[in-house]
Fold this protein.
Amino acid sequence: MNLSRIILLTLSLLILLLLMPFFNSILGGFLIAYLFKSLFESVENKVRNRTVSAGLVTFVSVIVLLLINYLFFRTVITSFIQMQALIDKNVLLLNNIISSMSADIIVTSTPSNIIDYFYGLFTSAPKTILDFIIVVSVTFYSLKDFEKVKLFIKSLFDHKISKAFDRIYGRVEQLINSFIYGHLMVSLILSIMVFTIVSFLKIPFSLELSSISFAMGVFPILSAYMLTLIVGFYYLFFADYLRFIILIVVSVILFFIDRNVKVLLHAKDSINHLLLVVGLVGGVAVFGFYGFIAGPILTSLAQALIEELYKF
């Protein structure tokens, strides 16, 4: 390794240390760019200008994600109010039971302070704005200059390693696409269906239940239909037969969608189930919400490297 490569590696490590506080924002930008890569390629084929195409796709992706975030936030507030009312009701019931037993114990609930929440949101505004700028910038330049960066990385190595790099990159892309379309997208669609049905039936905590169904759908073996089955039998226990029947029918529909679509989308290029579980658990533990995608990406890279190693 010559001196220029050593200097480049050293500078890269220093830049990495400086960017660590914004790691999630940078990772988010890369993930958004990857998710909208197909749209960018379609726009670029028509516009014939990578800068304009990247700008348009970045604008659309940001608007879509902000809209989703806004709707999600409103649902969180509604769900929070329902949960707080349920907690207050149970605390009141518990206090009445304790009072009837003449016990000198008082159980109180601490209502969440909405004012404190919005004050914290206001004080964190500068960091939030900077994170937003980083996400938009990384998304734009990832779409616009990805091929240049790829060629630059390949230029650092000899021909043999460059060929191996192409094979590993192609395999990683296959595995990631399999995960995104065979796990994430299917799970997202199923969780939206769960949210719609649960909201229609006026079942409390629709957001929490649909979020759990999404997480279950992402993991191997588990699926969203298992959640609706559990909730259905819960209402059977309380003799709510209408909700029970509807949830069982929905569970059957979700089962067939899950099994057929997942097999269709990722039968040949799926990530090893054990590696996928490790990637999901480890990714969420390290990266938080982004770990649902970052973890499997890293395990896809690990699987591709292992497969390449065993070719020799």
